[in-house]
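Hi all, a correction to my earlier message: I attached the wrong file for Chromatin regulatory protein sir2. Here's the right sequence:
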Amino acid sequence: MDFVSAPSGESSSLKNPVLEVEAVDMTSAGVKGGTATENITAATEEAAQSEDETDSDGSGDDWESQSLYEDAIQVVRDEQLRDGVPDACTLEEAIAYRRRLHDIGKAAFVEETIGRDTVTAKKLCTAFGILPPAFLDDAPDEAFHPLLAIAISREFQKRPKLPQYNTIDDAVKLLQESKNIVVLTGAGISTSLGIPDFRSKDTGLYSQLAHLGLSDPQEVFDIHVFREDPSIFFSIAKDILPTEKKFSPTHAFIRLLQDKGKLLTNYTQNIDNIEANAGVLPENIVQCHGSFATATCVKCDYKVSGDDIFDEIKKGAIPVCASCRKSIAEDSGVKRKRSSNGAHKNRKDNDGDSSDEDYEIPTPGVMKPDITFFGEDLPDEFGHRLLHHDRDRVDLVIVIGTSLKVAPVAEVPGVLPRTVPQIYISRTPVSHTEFDIDLLGDCDVVVSELCRRAGWELKHEMIPADEKVEVLPVEDYESRHVFKVVGA
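and the right structure:
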């Protein structure tokens, strides 16, 4: 299961996660004097500079949080363009516009389109995934220039697809020849084991938390809520713990890459620690959002293995610190007075008499699993390993089972060298990040078929010995393929 934590004000954008990168920031200034081409080009540079400054000051790259039109702007996906959206570009037009932008640059692109009146700014926004807000429907086309500037700036900063990689054979050859593979994983690699993801509309964990009475279901993972009432978190923690030491075929695939000496690093958003069940070594994993593998006392920092508190978590109970209990037992003869700041003082430190109501009995601290809650810093290891270990070594990136909607994982494809090929494996494609090859379907099915074609033996009880997989092309996408089990 993948997990998200919120920005905490640290300086590195790789350390702070970013929420929902599919929306659009509208912090660009309005149109000023000058031609449309000059105004839009200047605005794209301003937007790019503004984004760089936002990232560098640690406030994150949240496309929604500072939007002037936050509640009105809609993202239009490629699937919608393919089916047809009124007054929008067709999918073919959108793809052509995107390629042209990357080929000739922002200034030339704006001159070629808006400058020559070959397309309206309103329509061109849709080529880059933005459906203009309804309240601008009757506005002159110039009113859409700031929005278009943001859309162009965002698109131009995307990693362009490498044209030489398109087919299943290309993917298999990359697997066979690569020696330093970075694997990014999310909740999709664990769902076949019955572990829910967070955001699926009807089956995700967040959709099942209405009974907790939270204003936002994500508050169940808010560190401030946890400190105030840990019972809220522990009431659902049992539902996201794996009940057995099992692992999926996709976990086995990562282990196989390790056994073949090809796994450079597995960056995982998941907190279930199932990679360990498959035998992936700790030195080959970065737990981007921590895991249940260990837990730490919120009072004394005493640390234990996750196994030590799993029984209590599975009962829905709040695990408490054994070390605190021991200390309290040893000090049981000393009554402590509550001080104004919540700390305790010995009776002898106080002047005068006090009533018994001023005293409290010490309690042990709560054992918090070492997952990164909203409001907590991410591990330093993430940014350090990515920038100083992997970036200069990686020769293939495989993203599996994640929609890349949250950082830090969402940032990885753009941080690694653009010349390194990237493969995406999941049930549905993403439109905000450009991959070289999209392999769509059940993750377990895709990786098992890749291994068959590579001549690798991927052993797992969940892979039928006689399984046959059909691979179908996706219309209008040379590098997108759908995997389906024959007869399923």
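Sorry for the mix-up. Residues 4-13, 15-32, 51-71, 337-352 have pLDDT under 50 and may be disordered.
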